[in-house]
Structures are given as structure tokens and as C-alpha cells.
Design a protein that fits this description.
By secondary structure, the protein is mostly beta strands. The chain has helices at 29-32, 54-57, 74-79; strands spanning 2-9, 16-23, 39-42, 47-48, 66-71, 90-91, 97-104, 110-120, 131-134, 137-138, 146-151, 155-159, 164-165, 168-178, 181-192, 220-224, 230-235. The strands form six sheets. The protein has a five-stranded mixed sheet with strand order 9-15-14-11-12, with no helix packed on it. Strands 3-8-7-5 form a four-stranded mixed sheet. The chain has a two-stranded antiparallel ribbon with strand order 1-2. A hairpin with a 2-residue loop joins strand 14 and strand 15 (181-192).
């Protein structure tokens, strides 16, 4: 950059003309703007905001001095064709190697930068089998990054290890979040009151004639008399 002068003298005379020109040489945009960093997303994300690279890319330059465009190929970026219409909601199914084109609004200098979209792995999550259990059930311990929620998508109340669940049917969600990526499993439980009657009198009078255990899914039952002798025994007892 600088001011340059040209002088012309007609040969053999003192007739002369001169003029000056000021030249501004703008550096290559690769030397002005930062190389965009890869965009990291969770493996299940289908949409991403491409403009998130701009804060770091224009860290030392004013983005207002440039016209920005995003493209799925280098040829399109060079030709300025097939520009991504909505870069703030880009579908990653259309490709993960992309190009951003910056053009200085005054000098017209152009820089094309390549960047990638990278997937972070989805973390594993504890999966607990559904259960039917008597009262006073306590929630078991999870991994350090996992949490119980009463609603899906990490919503509702947070329950901790050792929480005593009340009688009733419950659906809990176990959520694991690692590096911003979330996995979730569902935990079903049916907690019933296990207050068994202390005796039965099956004499046909309509009072205490049956021992109702249908909800308990008993594998077997033995009934003893007061002297310790077995007077009734059956597998898979329900209501007899």
C-alpha cells in the first residue's frame, strides 16, 4: 500500500505531466479472518446453526464489513450458486463438510473456508426392568451423571437415590447427560400395599372365606395352623 507517482516528459523538451495514485492492498482474508472451527453436535441432532462459527471466525474483524454465504461444495462457493437458504437451521442429512464464503463489502476480496460438522457420541444410560413390588421400595443408585426425573426430556421433579416410592403405579425417566448429549430410559414400577390378613376362616359364612392375593403374583403359599403344621399349600396362588 502507498501513494505512487507517474511522470511523463516529452523527449527533447521540458514539457511534462505527472499524476499520483493511492494504492490500498488489502490482505488475503485467510490472514484477516480465523479459520472456522468444527461444529460439534450430538449424534441424534438433525438440525444445526451454521452461523455459530461466526463469533470465533470474526473475532478480530467486524462481521458487518462482510457478506457471508454458506455452501455444500467448493464449486458452489466459488461460483456463488446454490447458497444454503437457511443456515441457522441446516439439516445435517445434506452433508457435513461445508464451506463459508466471506466477501469484503468495500474491497471485494473473497475468502472461502472449509469446516466440518462432527458428531459427539450418545452416552449409555442405565435401563431398569419394570417391577411389581411391595411397599417401601427405594430407588437404587445410578451413575454419577444420571438422574431420575418424573417427566421425559429432563422435566418434572428430580428424584434421588434412596427415595422411598409410595404405593401406586409410577413411571420414571432415567436421564444421562455427557458433554451436552442426553440419553434416556423409562422405568415402570407398580408398588402395592403388602398388608396381608393375619388369618382366614373358610367356613362359608361370607367372612374371611378367601385369601385374596391376585395382585401379589405369589409363586407359592403355605398356610399353617397354630401348632406349626401345614394345612394348605399351593403354587401360583391367586384367590382360593
Amino acid at each position: 500500500s502507498g501513494t505512487y507517482k507517474i511522470e511523463a516528459v516529452y523527449t527533447g523538451t521540458e514539457c511534462a505531466l505527472e499524476d499520483t495514485v493511492k494504492v490500498d492492498i488489502f490482505p488475503a482474508l485467510q490472514d484477516v479472518l480465523n479459520q472456522p472451527k468444527p461444529i460439534s453436535i450430538c449424534a441424534y441432532d438433525e438440525w444445526v446453526d451454521l452461523t455459530s462459527i461466526e463469533d470465533d471466525m470474526f473475532n478480530t474483524a467486524s462481521i458487518n464489513d462482510y457478506t457471508i454465504g454458506y455452501f455444500t461444495s467448493l464449486n458452489n462457493a466459488q461460483a456463488g450458486t446454490a447458497k444454503i437458504v437457511n443456515p441457522t437451521q441446516y439439516n445435517t442429512l445434506n452433508g457435513t463438510t461445508l464451506y463459508v464464503k466471506a466477501e469484503h463489502n468495500v474491497y471485494g476480496c473473497i475468502g472461502i473456508f472449509e469446516f466440518n460438522i462432527e458428531n459427539r457420541p450418545i452416552p449409555s444410560v442405565t435401563s431398569l426392568d419394570g417391577l411389581l413390588i411391595c411397599d417401601m421400595y427405594k430407588l437404587p443408585k445410578l451413575k454419577d451423571t444420571e438422574t431420575y426425573f418424573t417427566k421425559t426430556n429432563r422435566e418434572g421433579d428430580v428424584l434421588t437415590e434412596g427415595t422411598v416410592m409410595p404405593v401406586g403405579e409410577h413411571t420414571l425417566y432415567i436421564s444421562n447427560i455427557v458433554d451436552g448429549c442426553i440419553s434416556e430410559s423409562v422405568f415402570y414400577m407398580n408398588i402395592i400395599s403388602c398388608q396381608l390378613p393375619k388369618g382366614i376362616s373358610p367356613n362359608g359364612d361370607g367372612n374371611n372365606d378367601f385369601l385374596e392375593l391376585s395382585d401379589y403374583h405369589a409363586e407359592n403359599i403355605k398356610i399353617y395352623n397354630r401348632y406349626g403344621g401345614v394345612v394348605y399349600e399351593r403354587d401360583n396362588y391367586r384367590n382360593e
